[in-house]
Amino acid sequence: MPGILWEKRYLANLAKLRVYTVTLAVSGPGGSDTEIKTSYISVFAPVDARFTVTPTTGIAPLAVTFDNLSAGDYETCSWAFGDDTSSNVCTPPAHTYDAPGVYTVTLTVSGAGGIDTESQTVTAFERVDAQFSGTPEAGVAPLAVMFSNLSTGDYTTCVWDFGDSSTSTDCSPPSHTYSAPGVYTVTLSVSGLGGADTEAKTNYITVYARLHADFSATPTQGVAPLEVTFNNLSVGDYTSCYWVFGDGITSTLQHPVHTYNLSGVYTVSLTIRGVAGEDTKTSTDFISVKRDYMIFLPVVIRGN
Fold first, then answer.
1. Residue 9: what pLDDT?
2. Is 215-290 CATH 3.30.70.360?
């Protein structure tokens, strides 16, 4: 029975393409012969698509680099970056995601070793931009102000500083009441995956002191002509005064002096006005003026 000898010889190509030479030796009554087929069998390494992404998260615009770690016998690469852009370069490409979003990156490699695909995600966050408004921006104490958080971007924490030693960590629009008159600076700081940002509005909220009209007078009674000095005791944010002395005379002075020439009982009022509004005090029958009487004595004439 003839004997057949198969010989396999392994030729490696960097752990990828493996090429084998096959030898057939036959012998028998008819002699012997050998056939050698060099590099006859080629065995390719199966394709294994792999890559890394650096970084995988960040703030848009986000610059990302890719490292192609694929193995096996492949010749072509196809990158799909998830934002309607692609590349056919096998060397690691760099790519920038301009808009916030979650992107699926896919690498497909193909060649004699077959075809394989790997996918990973890249998340680009929206940059934080702190913004707010308040209504009303001015008013009389106690003043309730409704704040609206107009911030944009990927943030999760908020810190409000209302300028009167009061704070809040509520991201939803808070309402705050200013009890004392003053001018207040309001600050909003927001932070999260989109970074951190602060908006400060200097002298943003103005709270006025409530008006209270009040006055005194000296003297409040006497004989005509009676000169009376009026003292304005009003408090609050006012800019104008209007006195009505009750005898048809008025004044816009702060502390007027008025003379009553006729006897009578007079009602006096003071009205103050300003950014805090208006208030009036009226003192009924406040000034009493009497007539100056002369006493005439009888004249007695004696006869001699």
1. 25
2. no
